[in-house]
Request: fold
Amino acid sequence: MLPGPSLLDAELRHLLREAIVEDRSRGAFKVHRRVFTDEAVLETERKVIFDHCWLYLGHASEIRTPGRFITRRVGGRPLILNRDREGKLHAFFNTCSHRGAVVCRERSGARRSFQCPYHGWVYDDRGVLIDVPGKDAMAPGLVESGEMNLVEVPKLGEYRGFVFINYDPDAISLEEYLADAKAVLDLVSDQGEAGMEVVGGTQEYAVNANWKLLQENSADGYHAATTHATYLDYIAARDGMSDNTRRMADPSAGRNLKALPPGEDLGHDNDFNRVRDLGNGHAVIASIGAAPWGRPYARWVPGWGEEAKEEIEEIGRSVVKRLGARRAELVINGDRNTLIFPNLVINDIMAITVRTFYPVRADRMEVNAWALAPVGESASSRDRRLRNFLEFLGPAGFASPDDVEMLEMCQDGYRNQLGMEWNDISRGMLKNSPSNTDEEQMRVFWRRWKKLMSPADAA
Reply:
């Protein structure tokens, strides 16, 4: 954060009103750098965005059976997501109704009840207060009245196993909010004939940068050739210098086009460079058969060895049989980086990662990420998937440390704002069909951000 006091209300309103400059006639789009550094802006984001937008909480596979639960911090609030004895999902505020202590301290497990560690109040898996030590000291009927049960989050929704919450009781439905992003979640979920599941635990790390920088970075094709050059060198050394590797390392070398049948969702006449506005601030960059890495489901690369080729081809044949040739082409050869406003990223590329990030301060965020995979895939296929995940997407892979360093360098650079107040996000502004080395996906996010954060809407 820049030194000096937080913005006064009038200054804040002015900044939010003028923070995004979009001049279509000149092909110019700019974002004021103070929205990344000022705590007053972040406090407004907490109230306007995180308190009213749908936020990702977890995946249904993490609480597959009755009695299972996980605890997460979402939008700054500790929550419990559980499945009660009848299989119904609940999202509770993880706060005792007595004196406010956190009721459940474990990260995950199986429970039929939750006992507050402070005074021992016990709630069942539906959130009902069922036991109070020394109950005879309470007024008759008070415990049974229901007014001291655990409080549920105002809105809970699930789409294809992805579980979201909303703190606004008057919010639109989850399906309406997701808009065309549902098509991407469908493509991800279609990879598992028996469904999808989170693999292992949570990857957690922190970044000394503003949370919006990771949203921008997560679907930024422009930085790959420079920031991730080491990964591209590794792919070339392992699998050979393919046309796709050469093109990704040098976007000016030309495109490897592969057309899809007209009308196919998320297909169009898709190539590596395709951006789609999914509505409500969501966006995706997608490609078909144009990325240099392998996909365990089911795109073989030489580095996996000839012994893996037969199994991977059989996986591909089974997908075609199950989904049909057109849909299977998207599932097998499609690569997608999806941004779901405000802070959910699903990278369905060499593996699948589901990532959220929440602000701690204007210049610091906490990141949570999970690997997603088809239920019931073979041990060898799961091994290839996790190796792919760890090589690039994992916290210690080729990508994440590079990206963290770049975002922290940006945050440090924002200390220089005398005469350097604006970020430029104009790339591809005048194109009818922006490529993923352009910046339309970021402009989609910032237009939604501006609409929500403008003083009239924020009020």
